[in-house]
Amino acid sequence: MTEKKKPNLPSFFTMAKNFSKDLAKYIKEGAPNVTSKSYLKRLEICSSCPHLLEEKMRCGKCGCLVEHKAKWRTTTCPDNRWNPEIILTDYEKERKPDSETGYRPPNASKQNKRNS
User: Fold this and answer.
1) What is the pLDDT of residue 15?
2) Sign of the dihedral through C-alpha 107, 103, 67, 52
3) CB of 89 within 8 A of CB of 37?
4) Which residues contact 105 (CB under 8 A, 6 or more apart)?
5) Is there a domain that residue 91 lies in?
6) Of 70, 77, 89, 71, the residue nearest 29 (C-alpha)
7) pLDDT along the chain (116 residues), means of 10
8) Of 21, 28, 59, 115, which sits most exposed with the smallest number of CB within 10 A?
9) Residue 36 forms part of a structural domain
10) Structural domain boundaries, residue 19
11) Is position 26 within any domain?
């Protein structure tokens, strides 16, 4: 029988660097969290990931505490299993957003009128 190899955590320095980068972006954006539905979906994805260290609930790729990182809208999975959610500024929310991305660049309507 072959035993499944467990991933190792990155070095302490690498984990600190990863956390600092994610934390700075999270704070800069106003500390936005995902919805409960998105949070549970992210945890479900992480729980089936081969990089998860279940006994520590840490990601073996970046070293994050999965239960915390999955809450932050600004973070992404280092293995591209889930992405950050789009965060709109108040200005962008006031404009009529694009239905697919939720964002319409400023002056988009002026550019369309010029091209007509």
Assistant:
1) 93
2) negative
3) no
4) none
5) no
6) 89
7) 69 94 92 92 94 91 93 92 77 60 55 48
8) 115
9) yes
10) 12-85
11) yes
